[in-house]
Amino acid sequence: MKYRQILNHRPAMKFRYVFYTPLVFFQFIPIVILDLSLEIYHQIGFRLMGIPCLDRKNFIRMDRHKLSYLTWYEKIGCAYCGYVNGWFRYASAIAGETEKYWCGIMHKKYNGFKPPEHHADYLPFGDEKAFDEFVKK
Asked: Is CB count within 10 Å lower at the N or C end of the chain?
């Protein structure tokens, strides 16, 4: 936990944490709203289109808050991060499955772009012949 190291060497940083922490936790409200919206889309839309639903528990893990050596506020932070970071991975996976279903064409390559893992099986950008062959299947 990097913040402990920082506070041990720079106690004046506590002032910044007092203002920063609410900014982090305020994100919980819109993320819960997005989570509900995404789950409705995922459960209804995927079933309608015949896309296999993803298992939420494979993305969202909330277990670090059970560690006895953490303080109560660290446990809250660990539960929050487990949920929020896991939810973003889950949302990204749902978006990736949606993209794969509706598109499946790679983006044009350029320096700095990091293509998602699910693009590995996509059709090459600009390859009309490969696209035509895929659509005819």
From this structure: C
